[in-house]
Amino acid sequence: MTEEPAPARAVVTRRPTGPGPAARPARVPIPPGGEPERDPETVRALVHGQLRTGLAVVGLLAALLGPLPLAFRSVPQLGGDGRPVVVWAVLGVVVYPLFVLLGRWYVRRAELTERRFNDAGTRARDGSGTAG
Amino acid sequence: MNQAYGVVAVTSVVVASGLIGALGLRISRTTSDFYVASRSVPPRLNAAAISGEYLSAASFLGIAGLVLSQGVDMLWVPVGYTAGYLVLLALVAAPLRRSGAYTLPDFAEARLESTVVRRITSILVVVVGWLYLVPQLQGAGLTLGLVTGAPGWTGALIVAIVVALSVAAGGMRSITFVQAFQYWLKLTALLVPALFLLLAWQGDPSARTALDEPPAFRDHTRVRVDDTVRVRVHEQLRVTVDGTVDGRAHQASVLLLQPGVHRVDTGTTLHFPVRARVAGRSEDTTAPARGSRGSDASPREDKGHSLYATYGLILATFLGTMGLPHVVVRFYTSPDGRAARRTTVVVLGLVGAFYLLPPLYGVLGRIYTPELLLTGNTDAVVLLLPERLIGGVAGDLLGALVAAGACAAFLSTASGLTMAVAGVLSQDVLPSPRTGYFRLASLIAVAVPLAVYTLVPGIPVAKAVGLAFAVSASSFCPLLVLGIWWRGLTAAGASAGLLTGGGAALTAVALTMTESVGTGWPRTLSAWPAVWSVPLAFLTMILVSLADRRGAPLHTDAIMARLHLPEPPANHSPAARGRRLTTDEDPTAGSPAP
Amino acid sequence: MNTLALAVSPTGTVLLVLCGAAAGLLAGAVLARRRVAVGGVGDSVEKATFRTLHTASLAAPPLRAGLTPDTARKAVRRLRPLLGSSALLLTDTDRVLAWGGSGEHHTDEVMQHARDVLGSGRAGVFTVDCAQEDCPVRAGVVVPLSVDQDLRGTLAAFGPEKSDALARATEEVARWVSVQLELAELDRARTSLIEAELRALRAQISPHFIYNSLAAIASFVRTDPERARGLLLEFAEFTRYSFRRHGDFTTLAEELRSIEQYLELERARFGTRLEVTLQIAPEVLPVALPFLCLQPLVENAVKHGLEGSARGSHIALTAEDEGSFARVVIEDNGIGMDPDRLRRILHGDGGPSSGIGLCNVDDRLRQVYGDEHGLVIETGVGAGMKVTVRIPKYRSGVHPAPR
Hints:
Chain A is mainly alpha-helical. Chain A has a domain at 39-117. Chain A contains 3 helices and 1 strand. In chain A, helix 1 runs antiparallel to helix 3. Chain A is flat, with a radius of gyration of 29 Å. Chain A starts with 9 loop residues before the first strand and ends in a 7-residue tail after the last helix. By secondary structure, chain B is α+β, with helices and mostly antiparallel strands. Chain B has 2 domains: 3-22 and 39-201 and 300-551, Sodium/glucose cotransporter (Up-down Bundle); 221-277, no CATH class. Chain B contains 24 helices and 8 strands. A 4-stranded antiparallel β-sheet of chain B has the order 2-7-4-5. Chain C has 2 domains: 46-187, GAF domain (Beta-Lactamase, 2-Layer Sandwich); 224-392, Histidine kinase-like ATPase, C-terminal domain (Heat Shock Protein 90, 2-Layer Sandwich), CATH 3.30.565.10. In chain C, strands 2-1-5-4-3 form a 5-stranded antiparallel β-sheet, sandwiched between helices. Chain C has a 5-stranded mixed β-sheet with strand order 7-9-10-12-11, covered by helices on one side. In chain C, helix 3 runs antiparallel to helix 4 (69-83), helix 6 (164-223) runs antiparallel to helix 7 and helix 8 runs parallel beside helix 9 (295-306). Chain C is elongated, with a radius of gyration of 31 Å. Mean pLDDT of chain C is 78; it is low at 1-17 and 34-41. Classes of the chains: A mainly alpha, B alpha+beta, C alpha+beta. The interface between A and C is large, with 28 and 47 residues. Strand 1 (26-28) of chain B pairs antiparallel with strand 7 (274-280) of chain C.
């Protein structure tokens, strides 16, 4: 980025880093901090709420897809001649939009829970003022 | 396949990726677009990057191969690959991002404040990364072999060198844009030829066979067997043989093969009549080579096995995705937990859209390239179909496009994995982290899977990936899920669970890869370990943690709060910026200044 | 692997699974009980020494975090096997923090003795009356813990009978615990010193920069009111960030935003004489880093770039992704600096007014990430200056404070 040949530069660090055992990181124990103080009980309630939503999605997924391998096998005449077509359609096409829908539902629920939590937090912090 | 087109296609993918990687930084020269340059990656871009890195050779080549060789049951593979993101979204995405961890060892340390757990996680990450890299190299060997006609190992070697060099030299200064580009390339490379293939299939009156009919030769077909295979014949079959079958030499003689397993030696040419049902390659290499009693399991038991295998596959993929090293790393790019969640939903859409395509190739392969079942080279079906079905210059061009997509598939996943593995190697496994070690680490990260690939060839690509998923599901899944949702998890519990679950799954993988287990249930159990190893890992973690209640990390409350507390709503949105100044709370108001 | 080929039957596989489970459980048990397992029977002197030192090293980290019920519990668990007493406890000045071993029903009585010891400041030997036949807590010693002659609590050990050996050993352990607590205070003092420096850094930004910025803004009020308004808003945002009170860490994105505001204000003064190029890999924007550790470097570059340069100054800021690290480079084409003088500045003896900024940033980076993450500066007289920082994407304890 300099146009004319610039004078030479030298590399400077505070300590000349030569070979040696000096390269261990100095792990100063820093207590985790910086979080705004929240009552552990409210945090616990938030965690439980989110876990419920998460498990609902996973449970729904298991309930919808879990029995399918058994079903496809135990009912060979499922839909007569069309059996494979049904299987192809379900496993090849239908499940994918279903996943996206489940995912969107989850995100909506999880964000709602968080918004409520934040609102409760601001209400608790200042009775009437606006949040920054 | 037209070699000139193929070479041009593959080369241009490499060059384009390199250019995007080297120049893809956001550059701004005036302060007015400073803000644009320093804006975090939006969920859509990051989702494309995650999908690009995730859709590997196993997805691009392997799924079609499996559908071709094993039929409709194998549709569970792409379903599982996608559903894994739904589980990740529901149980892991936002808290993982909020933990601030870049890699899984980081997460283990952040949550459990223990260097021991960090170590164990690091080693498992490296092993899972390697397991996942082997099939990528295999896909590379296959693709480049078909494109250039070189033997498989040269392709793998070339890709290993390219990846190691680009990672070691830090050639990818901005990997997000490269990976996002490769997602769209992969989608295009399957979508465009698929449209042409469907048209060709529509116009072929003889090909409208039902999907579930056993594959059969449409014409008089000649198949040359390049290495000794055992084939399973389902019904009496009349073939003309030039070579050695079942240890007896034949010269252009007609042979009536009885149902059962037969051995066909290297260099043999078989001529099949029209509409002959295709004899499939027998997976079971230990079955007696001769005679009609090749079947070692009753049909009923067989059914049980495949049902178990399906559930094993489902568990491994649903729960294993969250622990894949190259996937975890990408979530760091999201600016916060909320963005991580939204990103995952977009990934679900992008990955799902992609997975609509490979099964199509598999089905068409059953109709048009059934001889692959006999040669066992089923992973090549995606690459061969355009030429077979369309032919001419159009077929060559489409074939080159597919080859470019395959190239993007193994390049993106291989470089992502190498980055992740090398990072962990240089930070946690090699002594004392220095800059130079990262180069060494990236060489090691590629060299080991390359060695494994040359020593243990011939595992179907998607199946080898399945093993990596199984190990991830039985070690990282419990670590992440329990770590995020259960405050009772202790370092001792996590270590025990990682060692038990990961160790058990790894043992099963080793047994499967070296083919040390015989037949029947032991073989099935070790080929699909997730069904028993995942519960085992969860149970061990929970029980040992309960027994070690006092070993809970010092700051569990603070850590749980960090993982789950939502970020305050951003007041830096572009609309708000510069237009209106929000009032700032005065922390000193009302209380004496500190 | 062939030795494992015996697993050809279902029972074989089940055995394999059980072996795996047993191995894992064993490993867990070992990890959980490692403190007891170190050493063995028939110790030689070396083994005993090793065991003692090992136990001490395990007990040190909790104590280095200060004396709380949680840390006391962990320390007591490690230390009791060392003394072999039936009960070992740590108290602060008014309650028992952790009781290891049996006889917990004596809590009140023992606390009474502890108060006596804290009152006198000298260790005392006590006997305890107990109605329970098998209670192993009969007699023991209570030793005060002090930091700088300041009594912080006591360490007490009890056994079935009076024992001089136990008393002496307990005093030694108490002395060791006191040293650990002293070190904990030192850590805290060091942290607060750095914080004080950071406050000084914030204060240092303000006076002339605030004056100059306001003067520049004022010059636009008539000619270009819209620009003046924009600058005023940038100024407000910049000061809000710089004077922020909570949290030691921020994200690269936030830091860049403040640099953007800073540069916008400087350009209001210097116009086209100040040219800036920015190259950012978006992957590294979420990296957490010490608050205000880049802005002073940019300020330095601006100062050096504009000093004595007629042709105008060019500053390039690059942030690249390097696997588990982010590499940030700030380069200017200004007057540069004599490397020896810079070395003196970095060692903190460059005289007054000579870039507390550089020195402070270097200090904080080294304190947080370790010595290999200090500033690397390439410069020479008239050769411009290039400052490189390598920041790990994750380091335990480094988390950006919420905005």
